Amino acid sequence: MAHSACTELSAVQRRAALQLARAAITAHLAGAPPPSVPAELQSLQTSGLFVTLEKNGALRGCIGIIENAGSLGEALCEYAVAAACRDPRFPAVSSAELPALEIGVSLLQPPRPMTVASRADLLRQLEPGVDGLVIEEGRHRATFLPQVWEQLPVAEDFLGRLLQKAGLPEDYWSPRLRFSRYRSDSFTEADTPAP
């Protein structure tokens, strides 16, 4: 039976998703098999998904997939472990660190290609605080989730840092650059307390 991709979860499903992400990291660090997907999440599919880890308010890992993630439960387990152990910007999380980590999940809507005539045109079209952005040119590709606007609220800064993340100069512009934007439903353990 086909299931449509979800981009928003109920409070119960959000708690289950965060608990599953934490359980997946805990199991991986202990060398145990991945946890079972809870019933609340078993039939759900997702287009894109990112798992973000923070420690004392600072980024500690963030890995995900922009499109075609498939099963929400399986993707949560995979990308939670990847955020903890395979983000190239950070050493792998240790078991001792796990209690200090705050886990966040972002469910992405499918990206929509943008038509832009210039850098100024792109900046005019972006909706700060709302749009996630993907940039691509050849082997250069990067994305910022919508919540990155909290650290970079000015569109020019947001774009410049994203270009740098893709391995390009922050003032780079080329007609070969391609852009897509998306929205997401993001939630963390701090804003999704247990009942």
Automatic annotation (TrEMBL):
PROSITE patterns: AMMECR1
Signal sequence, start to end: none
Residue stretches making up the AMMECR1 domain: 4-195
InterPro entries, sorted: AMMECR1, AMMECR1_dom_sf, AMMECR1_domain, AMMECR1_N, AmmeMemoSam_A
Protein name: AmmeMemoRadiSam system protein A
Organism: Mangrovimicrobium sediminis
